[in-house]
Write a structure and sequence with these properties.
five-stranded mixed sheet, single chain, disordered N terminus, two-stranded antiparallel ribbon, Glutaredoxin, alpha+beta, 17% strand, 13 strands, globular
């Protein structure tokens, strides 16, 4: 992300496995930058990171609350893309009735091992002030790498587990994709959200999906059952087969109810009919 061409290329979301489109005018810095979906895989739960409060923590400790996690990966001094992703994510989440800290946690991990927890804390304060919901700061974790040779590898290990492929440039900046990942409370990767624009309805459904029945209303779960995520449209679309099953079940119920009604009506008619025997 050292010039406008590479920044623009990194803003464009890639479909899973396709990688960036390499063409004239696109910087070589973008080669190898991609997202390889690892749906169903478990992220490292014991890898030690540093919280914005300066204390050691792990993703396992964060997920122990039983809430799903919306995971963002980037770095805090990023001149463009990371800021765009988090800005738009917070704006969209502000329109969702599920809340950070209450229904799910927001975790941002810096891929730059040189960044400090003080910088992470400053970023957290700014985003939570914009979000503006009480208690949200308890569910927002802005994490950095431990300042040791071994600890510096922690963000890369987590990035690899979610298929977040990035590269460091000679300038010290990083080329990386734009992504949010939804993590269930047991650490499994449930959903990927791409780009820098996030539809609030899609984000809500992704949170409900990652909550696995613990978040949202029965209606939310029914709507989610009728939909599936479509990477091409970057949203949830109606799942035709499930609607057909519902339609078939409703048809069976209606026919059964009609037959029962006709049977009972015929029985009552027979009981009320005058006897045909001679007096």
């Amino acid at each position: 992300m050292t010039n406008s061409a590479s920044a623009q290329a990194s803003i464009a979301p890639f479909a899973p496995g396709e990688g960036p489109i390499l063409a004239d005018g696109v910087a070589k810095e973008m080669q190898g930058v991609d997202i390889l979906e690892h749906l169903g895989d478990t992220i490292p739960l014991t890898t030690v990171l540093i919280g914005d409060d300066g204390k050691e923590t792990t993703l396992g400790a964060i997920l122990a609350s039983g809430k799903p996690v919306m995971l963002h990966m980037g770095y805090y001094k990023c001149p463009m893309l990371c800021t765009l992703v988090l800005n738009e994510a917070i704006r969209s989440l502000s329109k969702v009735d599920l809340s950070i800290g209450k229904d799910f946690d927001l975790v941002s991990i810096s891929i730059n091992p040189k960044e400090s927890n003080e910088l992470a804390h400053a970023k957290k304060l700014g985003y939570m002030a914009e979000y503006g919901r009480a208690g949200s700061d308890q569910g927002a974790r802005f994490l950095t790498a431990p300042q040791t040779a071994e600890g510096a590898k922690a963000p890369a290990a987590i990035a690899e587990s979610v298929g977040f492929q990035y590269k460091e440039l000679p300038s010290g900046e990083y080329s990386h994709p734009a992504m949010l990942a939804m993590i269930a409370s047991d650490g499994r990767i449930v959903r990927y959200l791409y780009g820098v624009k996030f539809d609030p309805t899609t984000m809500r459904m992704a949170i409900v999906e990652a909550g696995e029945g613990k978040i949202g209303t029965p209606l939310d779960r029914f709507i989610l059952w009728c939909h599936q995520y479509d990477p091409a449209s970057q949203g949830y679309v109606v799942f035709a087969m499930r609607l057909m099953k519902i339609g078939g079940a409703v048809t069976v119920v209606v026919i059964a109810a009609g037959l029962i009604y006709m049977f009972r009506r015929g029985a009552r008619t027979s009981e009320l009919a005058p006897s045909s025997r001679p007096a």
